[in-house]
Write a structure and sequence with these properties.
Blueprint: E1 4-13, E2 18-27, E3 30-35, E4 43-46, E5 51-54, E6 56-58, H1 76-82, E7 85-90, H2 100-110, E8 115-118, E9 120-121, H3 122-128, H4 140-154, E10 161-164, H5 173-180, E11 190-193, H6 201-215, E12 219-221, H7 224-228, H8 233-245, E13 250-254, E14 259-263, H9 273-277, E15 284-286, E16 294-295, H10 298-307, E17 312-316, H11 320-328, E18 332-334, E19 340-341, E20 344-345, H12 348-363, H13 369-376, H14 378-383, E21 400-403, E22 424-429, E23 432-436, E24 439-440
Parallel strand pairs: 1-4, 6-7, 7-8, 9-10, 10-11, 11-12, 12-13, 13-18
Antiparallel strand pairs: 1-2, 2-3, 5-21, 14-17, 15-16, 15-17, 19-20, 21-22, 22-23, 23-24
Helix pairs in contact: 3-4, 4-5, 5-6, 6-8, 12-13
The protein binds zinc ion (ZN).
């Protein structure tokens, strides 16, 4: 493996909330020296006026469906990599896109564009044990079967369990708690997509806090923007703040957009949703053929919901100032919630991290750069117990994103949701160059990472 030296860049010092000009030396996948370095390397990267950041960590995303018959089955992970993400947490919102055997097996053999960890998803497990009706609770017997599967996956190094309560309204709070009893270490992490948004959001967040109290496990509330940014963000953040003061480990993540995205056939769009959001059919954008980039009418909405229930749609229903309010909060990380089918989906999966840096930090000055970076690096690294990631220090994994804070900008939009961002010069994964000037030069540097319980 070639040695790399990055010179004259600005390295974040999170403890002292500042940037310091330092050189960084990389050898065998690890940062071996930081400071003023005179020795030479095989590759030297000039990073004057650039930020030399730990690689971004996406704590909330949805991995691709890996078709093992395809020569290159990755797509989501490439878009992540191009926006500076080097490590992703898969299996969120109760949903795994394939078995963990397939996921881990494929990555162990073939490597991947980013480092991947995974949750095991509750809704996925419900499917596995035959709970087909999303409006009913699981039986005791079915919960036991799900726990047996979790038991097996603990040996695969899962992060913990993810829940997608809104997608299966029949899930009872007790089912959530009973399932978590399969996790026998206080270090496992729960992540949960709330039960209902809008006026029900505060109540839904309280339910998740209750789960954290009863299970004594840390709780990561998923994409709080799409839960509470309808006039309820201030109240939601206060409720979380209070539980944190009581000693519970509650954090949340948020993506920087005012539209959420999911499958049109899901329970999210059940009767009553438009009244709850005070929005119309026209606020729903279809993202796939044969209606790609078309706004709904009432007729089209019901037609697509019936004929193409798995189509990803974007719903322009949130208040962006409340999304900003969330991201400003000290216990909220940036998480993309990336959701793609090849090249169709929501731009958040190719733009979230650069968008926070360009729009929220540089243009609107809603956030300081050092705080934004913490939410993308050290914060989620600590949450995911990645003790070797999230900082530019000796001994850390060499996952590094080098960017120009004056130029970084998301390019992905609803018409072209996978366009790579501007202003990222290099992305380094496990000590080798993965992206150089927007081009992926090596998309097989990432590994499957087992969650560390000790
Ligand atoms: Zn979700």
């Amino acid at each position: 493996m070639k040695t790399i030296k990055i010179i004259n860049g600005l390295v974040p010092d999170f403890k002292n909330r500042k940037f310091v000009q330092k050189d960084v030396f990389i050898e065998d996948g690890v940062i071996t020296e930081v400071g003023a370095i005179t020795k030479s390397a095989d590759i030297t990267i000039e990073a004057k006026n650039r930020i030399v950041s730990p690689g971004f960590i996406d704590i909330h995303m949805h991995e691709e469906v890996i078709d093992i018959n395809e020569p290159d089955p990755y797509f989501t992970a490439y878009y992540e990599l191009q926006m500076g993400v080097t490590t992703c947490a898969a299996g969120n919102c109760g949903n795994n896109r394939q078995s963990i055997e397939t996921f881990k097996g494929y990555i162990d053999q073939n490597f991947s564009p980013v480092n991947y960890l995974t949750f095991i998803g509750h809704n996925y497990l419900r499917n596995q044990v035959g709970v087909e009706d999303r409006y009913r609770a699981s039986t005791k017997n079915e919960i036991e079967k799900m726990k047996a599967i979790i038991e097996k996956y603990k040996t695969y190094g899962i992060i913990g369990i993810s829940y997608g309560i809104e997608y299966s309204p029949g899930i009872e709070t007790q089912e959530i708690i009973d399932l978590a009893s399969a996790l026998d270490s206080e270090h496992y992490l729960l992540s949960a997509h709330f039960r209902e948004d809008g006026e029900k959001s505060v109540e839904s967040i309280k339910e998740l806090i209750q789960v954290a109290k009863d299970t004594k496990l840390p709780m990561q509330i998923s994409h709080i923007g799409s839960c509470s940014a309808y006039g309820y963000m201030t109240q939601s953040l206060k409720v979380i703040e209070k539980s944190r003061q009581e000693g519970y480990s509650i954090f949340a993540d948020c993506y920087p957009y005012d539209a959420f995205a999911t499958f049109i056939g899901s329970a999210v769009f059940d009767e009553g949703c438009f009244e709850r959001w005070n929005k119309t059919y026209h606020d729903i954008l279809l993202t796939e053929d044969p209606y790609r980039n078309t706004r709904c009418t009432e007729e089209l909405f019901y037609k697509v919901r019936k004929e193409y229930p798995n189509m990803i749609v974007a719903a322009f229903v949130m208040n962006e100032h409340e999304v900003v309010e969330a991201i400003q909060s000290p216990f909220i990380y940036v998480g993309s919630d990336s959701l793609f089918k090849k090249d169709s989906g929501h731009p958040r999966g190719a733009g979230s991290f650069p968008r926070v840096l360009s729009k929220y930090v540089r243009e609107d000055q809603s956030l300081e750069l050092i705080d934004a970076l913490w939410k993308m690096t050290l914060g989620p690294a600590e949450r995911l117990r990645l003790s070797n990631k999230g900082q530019i220090e000796v001994g850390m994994d060499a996952d590094i994103t080098i960017f120009n804070q004056e130029r970084i900008k998301d390019s992905a939009d609803y018409a072209n949701p996978t366009a790579p961002p501007e202003g990222i010069d290099y992305v380094i994964v496990n000590g080798e160059i993965a992206v150089q000037d927007k081009k992926i030069v090596n998309g097989r540097l990432g590994k499957y990472v087992k969650y560390q319980l000790n």
